């Protein structure tokens, strides 16, 4: 199903462009998690835990159909982001207990991903429709767009206050969030929405950089 979707939405990917066979992709897909777990040992127990959760999430997402419905898809995306972020934070912290700021940052990241990550699905509507995947933009077109257009500026304001960044940075960050919201409100063609998703990811990068800016 994913190959059918990618043939419409992302024909440049290895499988739809025939640079990789389905069998090769599956071998690679099941060979990499053990390698990841092996290297995670160097980071300690919590990093191994994060890698294990990620590996399980990948299986649930790809092989058990959770990608087929918006609720499971968003939950798995949230777990995926948090798994990467928690593991990376543990490695950088190099301690047995994360600081309260780090735990708060992870919590906020999870909430933001959970409520706005479907921004990635607006440009993929045709491909998702072709394989019967029910993403939030297909299930609730107006509500899903409302969540992004209201959620991104709202989170921008909340985070800029919470992390107590300077007025100049606050204005820039909120402006970035408003710009992302404006794009998703104004542009509704697949190519424009793909560009809007790029801007969303720039905003998401800024979200994760904010704790270092206070």
Walk me through this protein's architecture:
The protein is mostly helical. The chain has a domain at 116-213. It is 75% helix and 0% strand. The protein has ten helices and no strands. The protein has helices at 2-9, 22-40, 45-63, 70-93, 100-116, 125-131, 136-139, 141-162, 167-186, 190-209. Helix 5 (100-116) runs antiparallel to helix 8. The protein is flat, with a radius of gyration of 18 Å. The model has no long low-confidence stretch (mean pLDDT 89).
Notable traits:
single chain, 214 residues, mainly alpha, 10 helices, flat
Total number of helices: 10
Overall geometric form? flat
Largest sheet: none
**What Rg do the Cα atoms give?**
18 Å
Low-pLDDT segments: none
Strand content: under 5%
How many beta-strand runs? 0
Overall pLDDT, averaged? Answer: 89
Q: End-to-end span in angstroms?
A: 45 Å
């Amino acid at each position: 199903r994913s190959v059918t979707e990618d043939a419409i939405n992302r024909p440049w990917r290895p499988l739809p462009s025939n640079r990789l066979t389905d069998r090769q992709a599956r071998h690679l897909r099941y060979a990499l998690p053990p390698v990841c777990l092996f290297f995670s040992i160097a980071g300690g127990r919590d990093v191994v835990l994060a890698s294990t959760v990620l590996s399980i999430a990948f299986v649930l997402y790809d092989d058990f159909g959770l990608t087929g419905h918006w609720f499971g898809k968003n939950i798995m995306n949230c777990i995926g982001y948090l798994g990467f972020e928690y593991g990376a934070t543990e490695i950088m912290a190099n301690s047995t207990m994360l600081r309260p700021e780090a735990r708060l940052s992870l919590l906020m990241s999870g909430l933001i991903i959970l409520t706005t990550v479907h921004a990635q699905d607006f440009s993929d509507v045709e491909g998702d429709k072709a394989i019967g995947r029910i993403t939030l933009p297909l299930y609730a077109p107006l509500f899903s767009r409302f969540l992004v257009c209201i959620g991104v500026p709202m989170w921008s304001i909340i985070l800029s206050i919470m992390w107590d960044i300077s007025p100049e940075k606050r204005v820039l960050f909120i402006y970035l969030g408003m710009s992302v919201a404006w794009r998703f409100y104004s542009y509704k063609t697949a190519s424009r929405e793909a560009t809007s998703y790029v801007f969303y990811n720039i905003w998401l990068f800024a979200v994760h950089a904010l704790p270092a800016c206070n």
